Amino acid sequence: MMNCIDRLLRVFFFFFAVQLFGGTGNYKIESAIPGYGDAKKTYLLTLFLPFNPTIFSYASDPAVKKTCDYWWPKNRFFSGQDGLGHSCNLLWIDDTKHELDILRHSIDKVKQASAIYTVTHLSKRGSNYSALKSFLESFDFTLLGHWYWENQGGHAIFIKKELFNAAMHTLNYSPSNFCALSSASQNNLERYFQPANGKSLEHKIDGVDFIYMINLDERPEKFAKTSKELENFGIFPYRFSAVNGWKLSTEALNQVGVKFSSEFGREKFLGSIYREIEGQECLGNEIIRPNGETFFSLGMSRGAIGIVLSHLSVLQDAFDSGYQTIWVMEDDVEAVSDPNRISQLIPTLDRYVEDWDILFTDTDTKDHHGKHVPCRAVAARPNVPIGPLSSFFQRFYPVGADFSRIGMRYGAYSMIVRRSGMEKILQYFKNYGIFIPYDMDIWLNSNLKMYSVAQDIISHRAGSATDNSYPTYSKESNP
Fold first, then answer.
1. How far apart are CA 11 and CA 2, in angstroms?
2. 280 lies in some domain
3. Which residues of the chain have pLDDT under 50?
4. Are the C-beta atoms of 63 and 51 separated by less than 8 Å?
């Protein structure tokens, strides 16, 4: 369920360039965020702007307003010199070969802006791009991305350095002597948990009291495919109807997130807020402040929030049912080897470790090409005390021939969870609320003892459809 590119977006920022051959030159991308090509550059802008930005456009193409209205339904849009007296969040320039002149004659808007979208021009004889870049850097902007044809031109996005650094700090956090900020008391998450109805005794194997598979009602084909594959091994998971984050009310989102009750001092983090304005939901990204509003980690989608609530719903049902050991799967997994091995591996791990909480049935999550993706970075959770990165790395070591102790990982696709793990995870979220994706959050609880098998048994199905970033089960909702 968790999209790999979204996960990387939260924890890796670096500049890079790629070349695509075609046309009259090489197409290049210089971007602070990998994996986002020309078609998704406007989405990147949304990560740094409030829900209702004031946009000043110097563009002759009417599609610019249509694009801005799509991404920011509550924006205030002005063309050219209109809107004098209004502050500026986004300056959008799409005027052939005059972008630098426009910037020089719009100093007040440049100073106010959080982001600038502009065309660029390049040529073998000379370029105004380097001058444009230097000009914006003198006003504390940094390059977010440049998408262009070599020796011709393209489009670039610049972000105010304060916001860019706050995003860097948020998504690629380096905890050191961290003291968590206090958060307002959370409302009862259980009111948004999904019940497990119609359970039977067939959903178990030796050593496992119950087997759950989380599946959206809108995705019956995913459950059908995966469960049929497991049936070949005599394994019949119970279909758990997932919490669909895309159908939660704005009020519900603001109940399950985090409200901060103290200042951050020198540290600045960028977060996301869901608001409802005149009956329409708006998502904005702002520097986190103790202003009584509910924040999530930057870019935390409704789909990701639904995943957290789905997993917590399963754990609550299992705990209330008195289960000692459960198997929790998401619906985008596949059998790499005979899953009945798990019945033998559980008592083997018991002989090595008496108090383990989680056993993952694969070594790591995978990207769209089936390559393992190790986790070696932390996203900030400002209301939770987080140890230094070294403390997570120290938890990696082999345990016998069949297991490894692990300190961090992506992916919660297939996990054996002991009762102690159920209790620790439930208490953690009830204390601290929902803030970052489930698989990037649970291991921030230093008391959680996680292990993985040495060889994949049940693992993520590479390239599986996901509804995390968008509800792709509905084509009308897919931008």
1. 14
2. no
3. 1-23, 476-479
4. no
Q: How far apart are CA 371 and CA 374, in angstroms?
A: 10
Q: Following DSSP, what letter does each residue of 211-277 receive, concatenated?
A: EEEEE-TT-HHHHHHHHHHHHTTT---EEEE---GGGS-HHHHHHHSEEB-S--TT---EEEEEEEE
Specify the residue for token string 């969870």: 417
Q: Could you report the per-residue pLDDT of 358-415, keeping only the tens digit for each?
A: 999 999 988 888 888 899 889 999 999 888 889 999 999 999 999 999 999 999 999 9
The answer to the question of residue 209 being in a domain is yes
CA nearest neighbour of 458 among 249, 205, 155, 289: 205
Amino acid (1-letter code) at residue 166: A
Number of Cβ atoms within 10 Å of the Cβ of 10 = 24
User: Hey, what are 235's tokens?
Assistant: 């394994």
* Residue 61 falls inside a structural domain: yes
If 0-12 CB within 10 Å is exposed, 13-18 middle and 19+ buried, where does residue 207 land?
middle
Is 184 found in the same domain as 130? no
Task: Give the full edge-to-edge strand order of the sheet including 358-360.
Answer: 238-241, 210-215, 325-330, 414-418, 358-360, 450-453, 403-406, 397-399
Say which CATH number the domain at 319 has: 3.90.550
Domain containing 141: what range? 4-170
Strand, coil or helix: 195: coil
Cβ atoms 359, 327 nearer than 8 A: no
Note whether 182 and 166 are same-domain residues.
Answer: no
Would residue 272 count as lying in a domain?
A: no
Q: Retrieve residue 183's tokens.
A: 């958060």
∠ CA 64-69-72, rounded to 5°: 120
What is the rounded distance in angstroms from the CA atom of residue 45 to the CA atom of residue 55? 12
CA pair distance 406, 96, nearest whole angstrom: 54
Residues 399 and 364 in one domain: yes
3-state secondary structure of 71: helix
Q: From 416, 413, 406, select the one nearest 454 (Cα to Cα).
A: 406
Pairing mode, strands 450-453 and 358-360: parallel
What does the alpha-carbon distance between residue 80 and residue 59 come to, in Å, rounded to a whole number?
Answer: 8
The H or E element containing residue 11 is: helix 4-11
